[in-house]
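Here comes an entry:

___
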Amino acid sequence: MDLATVIGIVSGTIILLIAVLLGGSILLFVNIPSVLIVGGGVVATALIRFGMGDVVNSIKVAMNVFFTKTSNSQQVIQEIVNLANIARKNGLIVLEQQPIEDVFLKKAIMYCVDGHEAEFIEEVLRKEVSLTTERHDLGKKTFSAMGDSAPAFGMIGTLVGLVQMLANMEDPSAIGPAMAVCLLTTLYGAVAANLFFLPIADKLALRSQEEERNRRLIIEGVLGILKGLNPRVMEEYLETFLPPKDRKTEEGKK
């Protein structure tokens, strides 16, 4: 589970609730028509912009923000270096018996064990990386679109409320409460966009970048194993994928 995402959303919600409660009753901030306008509008525009399957799949992809944590790149490098050491001493076939948690790395190693050519392995793995990135991009775009449309529907709801209020000006004492209700729709749209949709879209993009980097790193590592590259040299080379502060070798930190 990604604790940063959970802590961010929970703390943001609590801070908002505290601000509301300090100003009066929370019921002042509850308005069902406003929820329907913002919620229904966001879903409707998502369905117009994307296919039904894309919207459903983007929700599944969004679960990665909460429940999936990308493999640590340094640990992936160490695992590849260990596999390279084993392959140099005992041959590629022994790698079949090694416990490998990362599904992508395991698949790449199995291609090596099965005796496929390096060009074929590289082509298949890079194709998978490309298609996975496309799926993640679609999920990010869907949530970005929701983040764009939520404030817009908040404003639309406010305008609808203003028209209804101005059409019923016989009772001046009702204007203030009615205006408050109008503004609630804008509030709902702003909160939905800035506390949920846009942060989730950004986290999806970050997760996608991290996963793509790890997979590119795995491809280079597996190709290095096939070439019989020295494990120490391979470690230094793979660490070039990491920022200097995360590199383990002295050469990599330079």
